[in-house]
Amino acid sequence: DPTTFHLGIEMDGKLVGCITAFQATNPDLEQSIQYRLRALCVDENYRNRGFARALVQRALDEVQRRGAQAVWFTARVHLIPFYKSFGCTDYGEHFLIPNSCMHVKMYKVF
Questions:
Q1: What distance in Å separates the CA atoms of residue 52 and residue 8, rounded to the nearest whole number?
Q2: What one-character-per-residue DSSP string does 16-60 give?
């Protein structure tokens, strides 16, 4: 899919964090050009260094540069404050992803 992109952070010669984004429509949103964020991950040995924040900010900047009117994703419930710091909004009921934890839907309109 040509709308898909991956961002990563390399430290000490290895990939320590990544995020993926691609154009996808969420029927809960009315904007015509939407992107979905997925698979934000930072190696546990490299957490609390601002890498997740840098990846999310760069992904938000890039989808906006590509013309997105909104971005959406699911997030772990305990990370709601983190995503709200980017201006994102949570909505709907919390739900369990099997073999994971409670999640919530979130979005941001540009």
A1: 10
A2: EEEEEEEE---TT---SSEEEEEEEEE-GGG-SSSHHHHHHHHHH
- Which pLDDT tens digit goes with each residue over 70-81? 999 999 999 999
Query: What span, in angstroms and rounded, lies between the C-alpha atoms of 36 and 63?
Result: 9
Q: What is the pLDDT of residues 39-88, one digit of tens each?
A: 999 999 999 999 999 999 999 999 999 999 999 999 999 999 999 999 99
Question: What is the rounded distance in angstroms from the CA atom of residue 65 to the CA atom of residue 59?
Answer: 10
The gap from C-alpha 33 to its chain's centroid, in whole angstroms, comes to: 16
Q: 99: pLDDT confidence band, cut at 50, 70 and 90?
A: confident
The tokens describing 51, both together, are 């890498």
The tokens 């050009």 sit on which residue? 33
